[in-house]
Amino acid sequence: MIIFYALLVFMIIAAIIAVETKNLLSAVICVGAIGFGGSLMFLFLRAPDIAITQIVVEVLALIILIRAAISRDLTFISGDREFFGMVVSVVVIFVIFVAGIRVFDAAMPEFGVPAFSYLPQAASNVYVEQGLRDTGATNLVSSVYLDYRAYDTLGEATVLFTAILGAMAILRGKSRKLVEEPDA
Amino acid sequence: MSGMTVIVKTVSSWVKVLIFLFGIYIILFGHLTPGGGFAGGVILASSYVLLMLAFGRKLVEENLPLPLASRLDCLGAFLFVLLAILGLLVGGVFFVNFLYAKYPGQTGHLVSAGTIPLSNIFIGLKVGASLFLVILALSMFRHDSKSPAAKPLTDGSGQAGE
Predict the structure, then answer these.
(1) Pick from A147, A43, A155: which is nearest to B113 by CA?
(2) Residue A48: its chain B contacts at CB < 8 A?
(3) Is residue B47 in a domain?
(4) pTM
(5) Residue B42: phi, psi to the nearest 5?
(6) Is A135 close to B123, i.e. CB distance below 8 A?
(7) DSSP states of A43-84
């Protein structure tokens, strides 16, 4: 249990440094530290699927960010930042968060236990008990996201497809030549 | 721009095979062990990104050209939807696991769980191709905006974004 708090403090410190530092590369590395801390937390929460996805996507996003940060001529941010206002806002948000945890402590289940698992007809209990018999997949996560909740995966694939379509339409080089041709 | 030092090139030419193989393993065993189509697809894309960082963009574009990558992307999405529609035609319900009802297979073996491994393969194909396309598009955009041909369009508002 103590390791979650240690990781949380580590991630919060990394986030503050990422916002506050003036070197862009340091900020990108701090963002990576947040992502890897999150991946470790998923691993300790016994969610290896999410941990694998998190760490892999984090590596890919970091590569893009580092390339973007290094290729810029201006890697240092100039100008003054308001350190005092940032600290105040962080403290206020943290106090609200802790107070919220204290208020909802009685209604929340134990940390790491699925919500509503005390109900016998809860969806999570049904998946855990009947998932192997219904789908035959020993990895229950895949039996949920590719069998019980395959619509979610279809939506996710559609979102990714649309994002790639937009990125390729905006970033491709041909459209510029089409724009340039009438001038030439 | 056309690659890094000899050390990086040599090491990445050994490691790229292992990364690609690990991605295939993650996709194929997605229904038995942690992992799945999305994570495996990202690993497949990252092996190409390693090649792109080490050897430059030219080599990667020769290996997996942009039209082929976009076709693989569309093929993965199309096959995934086709699997769902086959479930509607054969089993009566959209996305029903119609193969598991007929051929249940042996639990814990590679060929089991009906349509779940097939969906994993299609999603892995789709995610890998599309993330590769993202990296390629970003790289091409950076390259284009530095070349003098695209200068007239990028000196205005485009300069602020780059």
Answers:
(1) A147
(2) 34
(3) yes
(4) 0.78
(5) -65, -35
(6) no
(7) HHTT-HHHHHHHHHHHHHHHHHHHHHHHHSS--B--S---HH
Domain count, chain B: 1
Q: Tokens for A104?
A: 């909802």
On whether residue B162 sits in a domain, the answer given is: no
Instruction: Give the pLDDT confidence score for residue B148 in this predicted structure.
Output: 47
The answer to whether residue B158 is domain-embedded is no
Query: What does the block give as tokens for B151?
Result: 């200068």
pLDDT above 90 (res B18): yes
Neighbouring-strand partners of residue A76: A23
Q: Please indicate whether, in this complex, the C-beta atoms of B119 and A150 are within 8 angstroms of each other.
A: yes
Where are chain A's structural domains?
2-113, 149-184
Q: Which two tokens stand for residue B120?
A: 């994993």
A134: which 2 tokens?
């219904």
Instruction: Determine the structural domain holding residue B79 and report its residue range.
Output: 6-150
Residues 98-127 of B with CB under 8 A from A: 100, 104-105, 107-108, 112-116, 119-120, 123, 126-127
Convert B8-58 into a string of H (helix), E (strand) and C (coil).
HHHHHHHHHHHHHHHHHHHHHCCCCCCCCHHHHHHHHHHHHHHHHHHHCHH
Cα separation, B66 vs B49, whole angstroms: 14
Per-residue pLDDT of chain A (184 residues; tens, 9 = 90+): 788 888 888 998 898 888 888 788 888 889 999 999 999 988 888 888 889 889 998 988 888 888 766 666 666 666 666 777 778 888 898 899 888 878 877 777 776 676 777 777 777 778 888 878 777 778 888 888 888 888 888 888 889 888 888 877 777 655 555 556 555 4
* Residue B34 covered by a domain: yes
- C-alpha span between A44 and A146 (Å, rounded): 24
Residue B72 has pLDDT above 50, yes or no: yes
Q: Are B57 and B140 in contact (CB under 8 A)?
A: yes
Sign of CA pseudo-dihedral A114, A128, B113, B81? negative
